[in-house]
# Entry
Amino acid sequence: MMALQKGFRSLSIFKNHFRRISTSYLSPKLEGLSKDPSDITVEEYKTRRKNLIKLCLDSEPWRTSRNLLLCVPAAPPAYYSDQILYPFRQNTDFNYLCGYPKPNCVLILFTESGKEENFKSILFVPQPFEHQRIWDGEFEGEDSIARSTGVDEVKFTKDIASFLSTFVTDNSKFSLWYNYQKAVNPDFHKSVMADFLRQGKYKKLESCDLFVQSLRVVKSPGEIALIRKSMEITKAAFAAVDHMIDEWQSKRSKNSPLFEYEIQAVMEYVCQLNGGRLAYIPVIAGGNRGTTIHYVQNNNKIDPRELLLIDAGCEYKGYTTDITRVLNFSNLTYEQKVIIGLVQLVQEACIQMCTPQYSLNDIYRRMITIIGEYLQVMGFLDLKLEGKQFDRGADRFCPHHVGHYLGMDLHDTPLVSKEKKLQPGTVLTIEPGLYLRPEYIPENLSLFKGIAVRLEENILVTEKDPINLSEKVSPREKSFLARDADECMIDEKAQRIIAKLISNTGIK
# Structure
């Protein structure tokens, strides 16, 4: 018995020692993270549904005599292979309206007497069976689901067809709000809604997706709190990468290269350690690979002489962040300094425009103008280019928009126009970049070939000045900011032009 106890003790010591070794650079100091913010309240879900009904009714010319029937399905499960599930992610609009996290449900909202105060909500959920409880756990019960979501009633999905039949009988005039062109749940559409649509009992068929997204684009205080928490986790993930690189550099040898996938693994570890997950497959791109905007292979060895571009974010309780940084392992070259500095200048000018006076497209047009002028001064673009040729030339070096709306989805509320003036409470990304693909670079500037820089911040629009939610995410403070004209170019004429451009950006 003594020998057995000694063996177990030795095994425990070995396991603890191995854990310390194998996670030595995977364990950042996380005790500084704030407490979890509260979840979205039941009252907020109720208010969201009421606001949606109001928008739909206000769009109806016959609102006093025509009732509404809104149908919003949950997402189905997705399978990696036979009976092996992918991690589940809920349909965002469904999640926004009730917050229920299970697949194959359906939320139905409907009015009585064409009045918003008389609308009702029913959440249909799959009926549990004994064998499912063994595999998937206990069913929480209809009353519990109703309390957590604030819906008026919870029923089983097997009763949807019967409910629809009764509704049609009781309502000779009604508008149906359901996106049949982009069926969120194909099985539900085929088994229930396709036949219901063929009957043609409705007077009008619309999709409520745009109305839901117009509500989603402005974040409530509760939503902003969750985004801030997601940002804290993202900050910890980037800090863990920084720590990992320091550890690797201190022990570096020719026989122990660092790979891009190791960076991804550390970030995923930190996100999950804090109750989140990576919001998307991150871009971990060394050197010239960063000129591929959606490089996600992340399987190459990192060259310490090159910049490392990291585009990553966390999803926490349904709310996402989206951050891009560039890291340097060794001293920056002159060319790397110039490109990082220029992108920072462009970004600061764009962030200052994140106010209700401008739209995302306004900011994009400003970004293209500044980038194009910089490129002309530096010799990457012909000084004679104007108009559309000028825009196309700048677009070659930055072929994406200045940013996008951010929230429950990474590219949030895509139906909301980027020409719309920004509203207080909107969160968006500002992510200018310069991608110096070798085939675009003249030989006299060959030292710039392969440099890729994108810097991405998450900005909260307010009534006054924008708030940078991500300004403390490292390693931005390590980057070089080329504010002085003589840091950018040597030629006197170029210095004067750069100085003027900097002045025109409005940066103080």
Q: What stands out?
A: The mean pLDDT is 87. The two ends are 76 Å apart (CA to CA). The longest helix spans residues 221-250. The longest strand covers residues 115-125.
